[in-house]
Amino acid sequence: GLFKILQTLIEKGKSIIFITHKLKEVMAVADQITVLRGGRVVGTVSPDEVNPEKLATMMVGRDVNLVVTKKIATPKEAVLEVKDLIVRDERDNTTVQGISFEVRKGEVLGIAGVQGNGQTELVYALTGLLPIVSGDVRITGKPLRHSSPRDILERGVAHIPEDRQKHGLILSFPIHDNMMLCTYYQSPFARGVVLQEKTIFDNAEKLVKEFDVRTPNIFVSASALSGGNQQKVIVAREFSRPIELLIASQPTRGLDVGSIEYIHNRIIEKRDEGTAILVVSSELDEILALSDRIAVMYHGQIMDIL
Q1: How far apart, in whole angstroms, are the C-alpha atoms of residue 212 and residue 11?
Q2: Backbone dihedral region of 135: left (phi > 0), alpha (psi from -120 to 50 degrees) or beta?
């Protein structure tokens, strides 16, 4: 619909500057493409001169693999079991309407669907941010109902939230504090009520290197980072503790192609280590790239699992 409107404006003689991270969009809509990297113009090309891979290389400054390379999954026992789950949103509308599925150890189950069909409320219910109205949810065989977010994460659940700034980070806190938010009250980060600063700083330095977080230092506040680097802080924190289940909601929303490639590869690494992974995304390319099985959600129901 948006592209039709843009075409109508072009036909009326209007000039349009269209700014996007999404390679398919720019290839479809642009007559000329100017690539910016680090505040400088890398080059100007027309869509018939380049392909998405070449554009990605110009954007990031290195070759980017736009296809997720992965072995065939060898799933084992179910880690997350959901049966007849009903959830209401904050306005008391029933948005998840009796769905059932399971996620097994060593597999990625993708939840596909247009945003606003109950995916957000499903994730909130699984992570303790919304109450379960009825139905049965079990993680490693134990029921989830009436569990707090802390209870859930202590059972080995990692959460990459849909809104990284609202639910993933404390923006005014420095990177080193955001890197240990899940377990700040446990050893080795705390002894009783006393935080162990050296351990916290060492942990952050290690994770910044390992997860390629672009920052001058670990004392910078999370709000000063780009969206991609904020996402890497969350991924680093969630992946650096022992987990049984990863729930990743819109894990690469608003990110550049380099960050997308990086986060996709880390998710597949976790799968291959035996973690059960639930990925919720409105990007079909992402769902098809990462998933071993795909559940399609529409109007709060699962239409099919493929």
Answers
A1: 45
A2: left
